[in-house]
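Quick check before the chapter quiz. The format below is the same one you will see on the exam, so make sure you can read both the input and the output lines.
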Amino acid sequence: MDCEHFREALSARLDNEEVADHPTDAHMEHCADCAFWYEAAALITRRTRTSAVVAWPDVADAVLARVPSGAERSWSRLRLALGGVGVLQCGTGVLTLAGSGPDAGAWQLALGAAVLTLAALLGRTSRPPRPSPTPEPAANRLCRPAPAAEVTPLTRSMTRSAKSA
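Here is the expected output.
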C-alpha cells in the first residue's frame, strides 16, 4: 500500500486544500500508521498556528563590544601583505612576458592584479555605521499578546475546528 500518496492528501487537508473524491478517510480506517501520522501532523499544525512568537534579545552590540581594539590594525597588516604579494606577482608576470611567452605572463599579471585589487578593496569594506538605538524594536511589538477581545474569537474558532478535525 502506497501511504505517501495518502499522506500528501492528508497534508493538503490540514492546509485546507483538500482534494475532492480522495479516499483518505477510508484509508485511515484501515491504516493505523497513516491515522497516527495524521493525528501528529494535526497536532503540530495546531501548535504552530496557535503558538506565540518568541522574542530573542538583540546581541549585536554585545558581540561588537567584545571585538578587540587592535582588530583594525590587523586589517591594515593584511592589506600591506597582500599588496606586497600582488606587486611581486605582477613583477613575475612582466618578467615572464619578456622571457618565455605571453600565455604564462598574462596569467601571472592577471593574478597579481587580482591580489592588488583585493588589497585595495579590503580596507574599504568597513562596518556600516551603527544605527541609533530605537526605543522599541519592531520584534518586540510583534511579541506582545493582543488584547483579549482580539484573541477570543480566533481562539474559539480554532478550538472548534480542532475538535471537529
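If your answer matched, good. Residues 146-162 have pLDDT under 50 and may be disordered.
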